[in-house]
Write a structure and sequence with these properties.
Layout (H helix, E strand, L loop, with lengths): L4 H21 L8 E5 L5 H9 L4 E4 L2 H17 L9 E4 L8 H4 L5 E5 L2 H13 L4 E7 L15 H9 L4 E8 L6 H21 L9 E3 L6 H6 L4 E4 L1 H4 L1
Parallel strand pairs: 1-2, 1-8, 2-3, 3-4, 4-5, 5-6, 6-7
Helix pairs in contact: 1-2
The structure holds pyridoxal-5'-phosphate (PLP).
């Protein structure tokens, strides 16, 4: 898929309007809702247009692609004269295998898809070697679909506690995906569930001081996600179509 800067800007305006209205309905501050642009379906030229449209939080769902894209954009920005409004930050939003952690860690800023202790430990070990701290979300399988990745709902509190013991990880919140079918209305129970788990973690202070975000909502269901408390929306196709 490809899209011009103009097209992206007009889509972005429409999305921000919808976010604003959802915030009004749920009495939330729109400044507490940010957009991560998922670029898995577009070409590099469109990623550049996205940056021109002012978006600097970019996401991929595959490790190899994330590394390639981050490198290409890095080269592009160094050649270009004008700087983006903020530094570009890369988010990994797809299922992550442990043997890919070493590859992405030097370029990734946030990992949304931590769903097992073994994966968390691998990220921690690699981060320690690079002398850095990596921001992670605990991904939860709120819809309990067997084929879907994510930590089981019943294990979330304990997992959050364990992640917090890893010194080179910073647990910044919880992430979930709506059901694979059924559209926006069908996603609501999953988002409500994630917010309840989030509230529980925060009231018991088991998730640490940085656990402040809910990464939920995609193109088809971001309005519902905002109404249920999302602070980070992972949006792809709605930006480009
Ligand atoms: C692709 C993807 C998105 C964005 O999906 P759109 O429907 O294009 O908005 C969000 N999160 C994850 C994990 C994805 O893989």
């Amino acid at each position: 898929m490809a899209a011009t800067t103009k097209k992206i800007q007009s889509n972005l305006r429409r999305i921000r309007e919808a976010i604003g209205e959802a915030c009004q309905r749920s009495r939330r501050d729109p400044d507490r809702v940010s957009i991560v642009a998922v670029v898995k379906s577009v070409d590099v030229a469109t990623v550049k247009n996205l940056i021109d449209a002012g978006l600097t939080e970019l996401a991929e769902n595959r490790a190899k692609r994330l590394v390639e894209r981050a490198d290409a954009i890095d080269v592009y920005l160094r050649r270009r004269r004008t700087e983006p409004p903020r530094p570009i930050r890369w988010h990994m939003v797809g299922h992550l295998q442990r043997n890919k952690v070493r590859q992405i860690l030097p370029v990734v800023d946030v990992i949304h898809s931590v769903d097992s202790l073994r994966l968390a430990e691998e990220i921690n070990t690699r981060a320690e070697r690079l002398e850095r701290t990596t921001d992670v979300f605990l991904q939860v399988n709120c819809t309990e679909e067997p084929q879907k990745s994510g930590c089981a709902v019943g294990a979330v509190i304990h997992m959050a506690e364990l992640i917090c013991t890893l010194r080179n990880l910073r647990l910044v919140g919880l992430m979930t995906m709506g059901p694979t079918s059924g559209g926006a209305a069908a996603a609501k129970p999953a988002f409500v569930r994630l917010r309840e788990l989030f509230d529980e973690i925060r009231s018991e202070r088991t998730g640490g001081e940085h656990c402040q975000h809910l990464s939920m909502g995609m193109s088809r269901d971001y309005v519902v996600a905002v109404e249920e408390g999302a602070t980070i929306l992972r949006i792809g196709s709605a930006l480009f179509q």
